[in-house]
Amino acid sequence: MNALAIEKPWDPRSLRLPQLITALQSSLLLKMLVPICLVVAAMVIAISIYTPKAVVDTALEEAVVKGLQTADQLRALRAFYSENVVSKAVKDGAKASASYKNDPSAIPVPTTFILDVAQAFSNDQVKVGLVSPFPWPTRAGRVLDDFQREAWDKLSLDPGAHFERREVVNGREVLRVAVGDRMDASCVACHNSNAQSPKRDWKVGDVRGIIEVVRPIDQITRGAQALSWHLVVGISVAGIALFAALSALGLQLVRPLRDLAGSINNIARGRLHERVPHTARVDELGIVARALMNMQEQTNERMRAEEQISHMAHHDALTGLPNRVLFGSELERALSEWLPDETVAVFCLDLDRFKQVNDTLGHPVGDALLRAVADRLQSFVSDRILVARLGGDEFAVIQVGAEQPHESTDLGEQIIARLSEPYEIRGYQIVIGASVGVSLAPHDGDGADDLLKNADLALYRAKTEGRGTLRFFEPGMDAQMLARRELELDLRRALVNREFELYYQPLVNIDSDAICGFEALIRWNHPTRGMVSPVEFISLAEEVGEIESIGAWVLKTACREAATWPEEIKVAVNLSPLQFRSGSLVLHVMSALSASRLKAERLELEITEGLLLQDTEATLATLHQLRDLGVRISMDDFGTGYSSLSYLRKFPFDKIKIDRSFVRDLAETDGCMAIVRAVMDLGYGLGMSTTAEGVETAEQLAHLKREGCVEAQGYLISPPRPASAVAEMLFTQLLSGKSVA
């Protein structure tokens, strides 16, 4: 549990002993006071241990310093007396003697003088003395004690040092400090010439004895200890006072913190407009309170942003419907909640003719149409029906707990009927349709992925069987989709494996009955399926994005093979509308012409009316660029498009090709003859030649010739044949005496 999740101020009286202990253990105040108490106690203990010793040590160090100062003063006094008193007195004829007290005419020697001074200087607080291990006449028989011997041993080796020790003498603790009594220059000559001197080779700096200063320190230590304990008591009192002050301060801190913690807890529970206390304070708690208020505002903004992001992540931005992600999770939830007691139906919807609307009227109109479709689908939504947009013009529906398959059939037919009603979009009246595929759980699967896949297979069947229909999933559909997938994979490999081949169907000049060109038609030599018709794979190539590479190969191959034909024979190549969208069609044509060295006027490119219905500047610009290269442009399947002739005015085609459906019924239907006659008159009036496709009988050819059609193409003349047969057809024509058109 969050430590800040506090709802009420803590009241110890409301708790029993175990609860009280637990509350105390989690109390911030206790957590603050215990370390403070431990720190204060540690400080008092450390001071009580360290302070007495430190004070005593300091006092002893001061006593040692004073002892050394006293010894230095005696040495200085001795040197001054020796150089300035004794030396001058002796030169003046006076006598210096150690027993000067018995000789009124004598003055004391320096050592005796210092001894007397030291004796006079000594009192209860300090005693000074000079001792030496040498047998001086006046000090014969004197024995050094242990301290003096140890001091002599050390100072004789290190004259500049000092020696000290604490001892108990006559019941009192004293500090004994000793320094070396060294020879001065004024003393060396005198001692070396004195008959009573214990040695005659003295040098300056030699230690002849020690100067000892003895100070009682029992009063010092007692005073220092008393002072240290006063300090301990004072510090302890100060520590307790500090503990009390910090405790009071802690209480002042904890109360506002509890208030802030309560606010944080409420904010965490989703109370976005919780009032934050203490924001008016000017201290650090006020800073924390204002920071919490800022955090609250930012949290509110972030929560709103997260809600928006979550909605965007699970809903379609264009229509507001649930997207594929939310649809999948809702389908999983429906399956887990309703199966096996209820049936769950999954619908996949695809709009018929939507691509045509998008291409002809533009994407803004297409988007508005999708929103209108979503609005109509929303009318079917209930507590047991969910509608989603999967992407593009694909929608999906979940229907739960219905009497199946009757109610899913009714719902699917209602959706088709509702979506097929006319739409008024930006001044256009638009009519589309819908195809629906349905899968049922648990019969068609009990997993979301399987149900959606099977509904999509049923949708694919509905679209291939005429659109505007409803189909339920059948087990055999899976095999059909697998076969389509295999065909797609084979198609992607076909170009690399050189499985494509061009066949050529001749175009003849009707008046001269001579071949004037060939139309290139692609064939697929599948390694296992045999020859695959373009009807089966061209639309698939457009769907999977392979049409551009296949189209470029057709252009390159057709130009290369046509370059081997007589100069008067042209070649026609069909173009897919998708090749115009790639932006590289002109480059492909230029590359094919350059690589083959075929003259541009021998290449004829055939397009359908559907391409021009896009009426885009890019399409017209591409056509003009191709025309500028010298390539001829032909409109294929004329008359089967969308009843508008305005594009013939926008772009001057070189040729119009009459669709085979009009040629087929030419001899039987007057309407077809009228249409063919009108097309030829239109072509003549616009300066365009005409070619009739699908000529299969001599009677059809005779009618076309009478009406003035320029060229004909069809099985009556020749079926499409391999490239190797072109030379044979041209040679046969030459032998028959017909000239090439």
TrEMBL record:
Key words of the record: Membrane, Transmembrane, Transmembrane helix
BP-aspect Gene Ontology terms: signal transduction
Membrane-crossing segments per the record: 28-50, 227-251
Residues annotated as domain GGDEF: 342-475
Protein name: EAL domain-containing protein
GO CC annotation: membrane
Highest rank taxon of the organism: Bacteria
Domain EAL: 484-734
Domain HAMP: 251-304
InterPro entries, per the entry: Biofilm_reg_signaling, EAL_dom, EAL_sf, GGDEF_dom, HAMP_dom, Nucleotide_cyclase, Rev_trsase/Diguanyl_cyclase, Tll0287-like_dom
